[in-house]
Specification:
By secondary structure, this protein is α/β, with parallel strands linked by helices. It folds into two domains: about 30-95, Roll (Ubiquitin-like (UB roll)), CATH 3.10.20; about 125-255, Cytidine Deaminase, domain 2 (3-Layer(aba) Sandwich). The chain contains eight helices and 14 strands. It has helices spanning about 50-60, 85-95, 110-120, 125-140, 140-145, 170-185, 200-210, 225-235, and strands at about 1-10, 15-25, 30-35, 35-45, 70-75, 80, 125, 150-155, 160-170, 195, 215-220, 235-240, 245-250, 255. The strands form four sheets. Strands 9-8-10-11-12-13 form a six-stranded mixed sheet, sandwiched between helices. Strands 4-3-6-5 form a four-stranded mixed sheet, covered by helices on one side. Helix 1 (about 50-60) packs across helix 6. The chain is globular and about 60 Å long.
């Protein structure tokens, strides 16, 4: 996943240039075909490709669950997906996210329906779970540590168990990978917290909502539209998560205080 390159580094202390070997993250291009036609091209780390595609199909609303997937085959730098024709055409009609998805604050009916069902899910997480997620993102990101060129994402349960972790050059891809991995292992996503190194935009909020994740944590900041949509869909958004504190922007009742001494 890492490639060594020569680089010229300037040393401010000595005011000199020096030649060094620098590790850079590997970025490859993967073409995804759905029912024989080119659907999308991903720029990604060449790992967990199956998980990436499954997660993407789920979070984009192309499939509702794995039962909609007839076949998925990874061949070199191409992925071939077979879906029921009618289901695929219907999913294309009711999407596409892009940045103007909520341009006039109109939320798609399928998302509102899913959000209303999630209202009955009383999942709660302790503040300690949030801090454990932050600690894990900072400690188990080998590619980022070596190259400073990747994003990380993880899924954690209420008992602080890490259920899935992934890195990628894209924050979207990293999130799709952990969601795809959990789905392929039949893990209940509605009982997990999603943590990411990237900012929480409207697109990320919608991805989480589509698969039933209700609590999102980021080491970075949320955007204004991300917060607004999370409020409309009933998701809890947490930003600026660090070792000592974090900011809760919506539905703080899902986070309970950690008891002293624990």
């Amino acid at each position: 996943m890492l490639i060594e390159h020569e680089a010229l580094r300037f040393n401010r202390t000595n005011c000199i240039f020096e030649r060094i070997k620098s590790l850079t993250v590997t970025e490859e291009i993967i073409d995804v075909y759905v029912n024989g036609d080119l659907y999308a091209t991903f720029h990604c780390l060449p790992s967990q490709i199956k998980e990436l595609v499954v997660g993407h199909l789920l979070t984009e609303g192309i499939i509702g669950d794995l039962k909609d997937l007839i076949e998925l085959k990874v061949t070199g730098k191409s992925v071939y997906v077979e879906l029921p024709e009618k289901a695929f055409l219907d999913s294309i009609r009711r999407r596409r996210l892009i940045t103007t998805f909520f341009g006039n604050s109109v939320i798609k009916p399928d998302l509102l329906e899913k959000a209303s069902k999630l209202g009955f899910n009383k999942v709660r997480f302790s503040a300690e779970t949030v801090f454990k997620a932050v600690e894990a993102l900072n400690s188990i990101s080998p590619i980022y540590k070596a190259s400073k060129g990747s994003h990380g994402a993880l899924l954690i349960d209420e008992y602080c168990n890490i259920m899935s972790f992934a890195e990628d050059v894209s924050r979207h891809n990293a999130i799709d990978k952990v969601i795809g991995d959990a789905a392929l292992r039949d893990i209940d996503l509605t009982k997990l917290l999603l943590a990411s190194t990237g900012r929480l935009t409207s697109e990320i909020v919608v991805k989480a909502s589509r698969v039933g994740i209700q609590v999102l944590v980021s080491l970075a900041a949320p955007t204004s539209l991300g917060i607004k949509i999370a409020g409309n869909l009933g998701l809890t958004i947490i930003g600026f998560a660090g070792e000592r504190y974090f900011h809760i922007y919506t539905f703080p009742e899902r986070i309970r205080e950690t008891e002293k001494g624990k």
